[in-house]
Specification:
Length: about 220
């Protein structure tokens, strides 16, 4: 008796055809074959009802998997569209991403640090383009995770620093252990797009394009 595997082989389209058979086509061909088998069966060796039932169950399984894949595809497309819509709402928002360059223009600037664990204290240094430290301050104990900080743009003597780029660095301690946590800088989302793999990409001012997963915090 023809099995469901043989039926699937029979239903495979010729190589020259580009059309893909649907589950409805598969069911139609299966039923036609089954009816033909029953009409031409040996009266002395009739078809086993259990075997027919098994083949029908296999066909239903194949059809169910095809429908499940179609449903999952629709859900993925809907989820991607929803993510793109939500990401579009981030335009003009400030975000924190990994980096150490601060753009100073006479206004306080926000930045951050990413701590792998809680620390007893932390020191932040801000240097100019020549490497001269213009300001240094301590933050005290900090919790694990992303911490947002702000620099008022004043040097150690309280004077406003010239506009330009400055470099931040941080060192923290827990007990006698010293660590250098990753520094984060504030950037503005200019536009939203998608990569070739469908992932959401954000175009940031002064930072190029980054994945939405690279955003450490929304400000």
């Amino acid at each position: 008796m023809t099995t469901i595997a043989e039926l699937q082989s029979t239903m495979s389209p010729p190589a020259a055809k580009s059309a893909t058979p649907t589950s409805a086509d598969a069911q139609d061909r299966f039923l036609k074959l089954l009816v033909t088998q029953m009409q031409n069966q040996d009266p002395l060796n009739p078809m086993d009802n259990a075997e027919v039932t098994t083949q029908l169950a296999q066909l239903n399984t194949v059809t169910g998997i095809e429908q499940l894949n179609k449903t999952l595809g629709q859900m993925a497309a809907s989820s991607s569209a929803q993510q793109s819509l939500q990401a579009a709402m981030l335009v003009s928002r400030e975000v924190l991403v990994t980096g150490n360059q601060l753009n100073v223009s006479g206004q306080p600037v926000r930045f951050g640090v990413d701590l792998p664990q809680a620390v007893d204290g932390m020191t932040v240094d801000i240097a100019d383009a020549k490497g001269n430290v213009v300001e240094s301050f301590q933050t005290g104990a900090q919790s694990q995770g992303t911490t947002t900080l702000e620099w008022d743009g004043l040097d150690a003597s309280g004077k406003s620093v010239p506009p330009g780029q400055y470099v931040i660095s941080a060192r923290a301690n827990y007990g006698s252990t010293i660590v250098a946590p990753a520094t984060l800088v504030s950037r503005t989302v200019q536009s939203v797009g998608s990569a070739a793999d469908g992932s959401i990409q954000l175009q940031l001012s002064g930072a190029g394009s980054v994945g939405i997963a690279d955003i450490k915090r929304f400000l």
